[in-house]
Amino acid sequence: MADVSPLRSRVTGPVLVEGDDDYAEESLGWVRNFIHTPDVVVGATSAQDIVEAVKFAAANNLAVRVQGSGHGSHAAVTDGVLITTKRLESVEVDATTRIATIGAGVAWDAVIAAGGEHGLAPITGSSGTVGAIGFLLGGGMGPLVNSYGFGSDWVREFEVVLADGSLVTASTDEHPDLFWALRGGKGGLGVVTSAKVELVELATLYGGSLTYEAANIDTALHAWASYLESADARVTTSAAILRMPDLPFIPEPIRGRTLLTVRFAFTGDAATGEGLAAPLRAAAPVYLDQLGEIPASAIGTVHNDPPNPTVGWTTGRMLNSVDQAFVTALLGFAGMDKQVPFVAIEIRAFGAAQATDVADGSAVGGRGAKGSINIVGVPNPELFATVIPGAAAGLLEAVKPWISPENNVNFASGFDGAENYRRSWSPAVFDRLAEVRIKYDPKGLFAFGVH
Ligand SMILES: Cc1cc2nc3c(=O)[nH]c(=O)nc-3n(C[C@H](O)[C@H](O)[C@H](O)COP(=O)(O)OP(=O)(O)OC[C@H]3O[C@@H](n4cnc5c(N)ncnc54)[C@H](O)[C@@H]3O)c2cc1C
């Protein structure tokens, strides 16, 4: 292993190798099933720290990987330089231009809070603890996707350290090919140190969820599919079959129960939102009604994703449509009368806004999809290698006719083979991404893809 003392003298943040105090803690991400053991972990405190770490890696033929919050870990890192960005947590909002400048380690919650002070909101995902940059690099589909499209459609600029150690701006004016690739192409391009994202004017939402008991899942899920046939384009909905463990930390109303929760977000006024939600409220008896007017800053309550680090197994696909026959096939494999090792099966529905690309184009995969399916296994690592992947494969086979050949990298949850990596984009975008990666990272310093 290369001598890290010259790097230590040039970097302000911690530079740690195995055996150092804090090495394990610094390498740890949100997904706790992977224990990372890189050759070196560099806790960046500035863009310059990242420049130094990249130059060190290049000089020593070490692969570079980046960890923001660690929500996207899908394999243990066992070599190279791991750059952690969690200390780059600045958020500055210019209320006049509606631009937020965010550091590489910022989680969405911080942007939501800073924007909220000005009646502004970022286009985020379902969880506020997810890293904003990691999310945006994959495109990013959240509870407002039908109103505002992908999160990456709202990025105006990335600041990036390239493989040669230079710090550049990628925007529609500077390095436009790199900017195209960073908006959805995810990895193998460089290390983003900060981004400028446009916020939208949004103070309140009609949003939240309607939860139905097990006996009503069939009726309510079919009613949701029927609702989608003529749903107002401004409404974003999703549905999740939840099998909640009987554990003390789970809130009492949902503990140990199988439930269906339908999430709803509408960016207009509450009276209109209530009218638009009425068919879902009437679909079946509602067990928990948590839908109403909320501050836009409470957007995390629409999905109520788990905020705390955890072990986990997930996989996802894009869907060509979400219709009655799909629901029948889904429930035929994973309905309430079935035994499946999943805590959640989430179906999201997409509309026109996410299908419309930005004017200059972007590398986002799955843009034309009509929905997504995300399968979350029970949090038992003993089942992660065999039982859960096997059951997930069975479910995906049952709904195969609805699965789009093109996925989205944020939903792919790991590349377990070359095909899985390839299908995170259309063939044309995959090939163009490969060209941009070779141009900016000719030696493949930034490890990304099948691993
Ligand atoms: C609970 C949960 C909810 C989610 N909800 C959504 C959702 O609603 N919509 C959606 O689209 N996705 C969602 N995701 C997926 C999530 O957007 C991706 O996993 C994303 O990559 C996480 O980014 P991160 O920084 O949090 O994770 P990390 O594991 O830190 O980063 C993931 C990858 O992003 C890249 N990356 C991160 N930071 C940088 C950087 N500064 N420079 C270069 N590359 C970088 C690297 O390739 C890294 O391996 C969710 C994931 C979880 C676990």
Keyword list:
single chain, 451 residues, alpha+beta, Uridine Diphospho-n-acetylenolpyruvylglucosamine Reductase, domain 2, 18 strands, globular, binds flavin-adenine dinucleotide
Describe the overall structure:
The protein is an alpha+beta fold. The chain contains 16 helices and 18 strands. A seven-stranded antiparallel beta sheet has the order 15-12-14-13-17-18-16. Strand 8 and strand 9 (167-170) form a beta hairpin. The longest helix has 14 residues, at 427-440. The radius of gyration is 22 Å and the shape is globular. The site of flavin-adenine dinucleotide has 30 residues, from strand 3, helix 5 and strand 10.
Low-pLDDT runs of 5+ residues are none
Mean pLDDT: 96
Structural class: alpha+beta
Overall geometric form: globular
Kindly report how far apart the N and C termini lie. 21 Å
What would CATH call the class of the domain at 204-422? Alpha Beta
- Hetero compounds: flavin-adenine dinucleotide
Name of the CATH architecture of the domain at 204-422: 3-Layer(aba) Sandwich
Overall number of strands? 18
Give the count of helical stretches: 16
CATH fold label of the domain at 204-422: Vanillyl-alcohol Oxidase, Chain A, domain 3
Helical content stands at 25-40%
* Biggest sheet: strand arrangement: 15-12-14-13-17-18-16
Radius of gyration: 22 Å
What characterizes the major β-sheet?
A: 7 strands, antiparallel
Strand content: 15-25%
